Write a sequence for this structure.
């Protein structure tokens, strides 16, 4: 039996936190579950980086074809 959270070998017999390996993992899992329940559905707040205008400085330094 492995802890579903940290995947470490877990003692089943006499383990008050089974199937987790420890109280820490159990509480963490419960906390994760609670967080899932309270998750507000909505658009993901993706970090949209402002698109900087690409200044093509090399365009003026090109060779003159029409001289
Ligand atoms: Zn664990």
């Amino acid at each position: 039996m492995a802890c579903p959270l940290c995947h470490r070998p877990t003692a089943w017999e006499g383990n008050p936190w089974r199937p987790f390996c420890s109280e820490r993992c159990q509480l963490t899992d419960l906390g994760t579950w609670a967080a899932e329940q309270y998750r507000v559905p909505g658009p993901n707040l993706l970090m949209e980086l402002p698109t900087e205008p690409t200044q093509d400085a090399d365009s003026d330094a090109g060779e003159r074809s029409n001289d």
